[in-house]
Structure formats: structure tokens, C-alpha cells
Amino acid sequence: MENQVEEIKKKLDIVEVINRLLPLRKRGRHYVANCPFHQEKTPSFIVSPELQIYKCFGCGKAGDVFSFIQEFNRIDFREALEEMAKVAGVKLLNTFEDSREEKNKKTLLKINEEVARFYHYMLTTHQLGKEAREYLEKREIDEKMIKTFQVGFCPNDSRLITAYLKKKNFTEEDLVKTGTFGWSQYGGKKLYDRFSGRLTFPLVDFRERILGFSGRVLPGAKAEQAKYINSPETELYHKSQMVYGLNLAKEAIRKELSVIVVEGEFDMISPFGTGIKNIVAIKGTAFTEEQLQLLRRYTDTLILALDSDFAGNNAAIKSIEMAEKLEFEIRVVNLVGKYKDPDEAIRDDPDG
Ligand SMILES: [Zn+2]
User: Which part of the chain is the Toprim domain (predicted)?
Assistant: First the structure.
């Protein structure tokens, strides 16, 4: 184990690893940045290429490449080791025994990956996805964006996907634990798929893990169906922590020194496709504290392009107060009266 830790460390340059997450500036023999672990306006976070360590003279946080990744991504040593092994191209020997909880999470992540692949295949290739394909075409979401966001379609007949997953040796109990499937109340023990008949969007976190899904109805759906639904809270998915698109936008956010915040999946995908890359969706009209803290690691400027109801919304006012406490600079793109949502503003073509 010790050997592998050293081997990975030797193959990595701490400056390169940190710079990818937090742009560093050269100053003398060191590199500096505003500390990601406390709020500050002048940099006291120092990285030493010679010693391969970092230290913040403001808050005292210090350590090596592993402790940085742990602290920055809020993961444990072992997850940091696995992540860095991948970056360094080192194959980890199986010296850890997964706890039951870990094993369980890994299984759910694998199922989610398969589900996303299945939905995506249905949308892009299968006859059953034709109507959904036509709808996306009408909304001017092109193939490249469909692929980038792994957009999918969930057919009405859930037997297709459950058969596919069972063939891959996943148990029905595990399928239910992902939140995508539930036991049907009618006709004995049958699984239903929560996203039946919907366009699907994998909810990917900043570490590229698919934690859950959201689904949008197609035109012509029954009026009582909610336009969007999300995975329920599971061992993996926590709605309050999800910032949609952050995995794809984080580098642009750092480069542009700001993040544009929109509400829903389409609001983000359309502008992203036109080249506006520093954009995320909060999947609602107000921030949670966790979402703000997550964004704060990448930038201190929020550009709000939320729904026209935003200003009158109590939850929104509260979230602005929270953002100010975290020393965000806040700008508002005013869409009031002109367009119902930012996606429309960008396409200039109102459609529900
Ligand atoms: Zn600090």
C-alpha cells in the first residue's frame, strides 16, 4: 500500500493537479491562488513544486496532493487515492476491502450507468425513440448535445429495461434502490420505471458519477403528469446537492470567473450548445446552501438567469442572502416580460 501511494505521488505534479481544479499563478519559486478553503480576496494559498505540498497562510490548511483532493472534493483518503491512481495511470492493487455500504454504492452507480446507456440507445437508435427524437430536433438540441449530456428516452414498456438489467445480473432489490424503479402496486411483484414515456437526463455530479435521473414529458402527455420529475432521495442522490451540468461547466466557470445559473436542464443545454459553457442549472427556483458552497469552490460571481418569477419568490430572496454571506458577487440577467425562461431567450422561439 505504502509503495503504491508513493508511486502515484511520484507520477503526479501537485502544481498540475491543483491547477486543473484551481488556477494557480506563479510567484517566485511558488504558485499562489485565493484559498479554496476559506474566503479571501488576496491569495495566501501557496503551492510548492519543490516540496510537492500546499499551505494556506490564512486558514492553516496544508498537505500533499492526496489531502488536497480529499479536502477539495470532500472525499475520503481512499476515494482520493482511487481518483489520483486514475490520473497517474497506476493500477491499484486490491488492498482495500470494500465496506458493505461502499459495495452497495458501487452497484447502484453501475446500474445507473447501464440505465443511462439504455435510455440513450432508445433515444438515438431505437424505433421507440422516434417521437422523442423529433421533439428534440424541434427544440434545436443537436446530436452533439444529446451525446454530451447523454439525453435519453424511457419507453413505456418497462419490461425492456428490466430484462436488460437482469441479464447483467443486477437484482430487483438493487434496481429499486436506485430510485429509478419501484414495485408496481397492481398485478403482483412487477417493477415499473418511474420515467416511463419521458425524455431522460442523467444527473451527473462534479465527479462524473451518475447519481440519478430527471425526466421530462413529451408534448401530448396527460395534463396531470408533472412536466419534470426527478429521482427520489437515495443513498446516492440528494437533490439539495445537485448542480446540473457542473461536471461539464467547471473548467469554463474558472476561466470565465463567473457562473451563469439557470433553472432547468433545457435552459442549460441550449446555451451550452451555442458555446456558453460557464453555465449550470439548479433544478428549481432557489439555491440550497450546499449548491452555493459547491459553486463557491469554482467562482465568486453568480450571474442569475432564472425565471421571471424569481424576484418575487421568498425562497429566492433567502438564497440571495445565503449567497451574500458566502461573499458571492451577484448579477441578475433580467428576462422579465421578454421571455418566460432563458432557454427561450436564447432560441428566441417561445415554446413550452
Ligand atoms: Zn485558507
Answer: 257-338
How much distance in Å is there from the Cα of 39 to the middle of ligand 1?
7
Measure 51 CA to ligand 1 centroid, in angstroms.
19
63 alpha carbon to ligand 1 midpoint, in Å?
Answer: 12
**Residue that terminates a domain, selected from 28, 61, 88:** 88
Domain of 268, in residue numbers: 246-347
pLDDT of residue 95: 63
pLDDT (tens digit, 9 = 90+) per residue, 231-248? Answer: 999 999 999 999 999 999
Q: Which pairs count as long-range contacts for 2-9, CB under 8 Å and 24+ apart, including other chains? A: 4/81, 4/85, 4/90, 4/92, 4/93, 4/95, 5/66, 5/81, 7/88, 7/90, 8/81, 8/84, 8/85, 8/88, 8/90, 9/52, 9/64, 9/65, 9/66
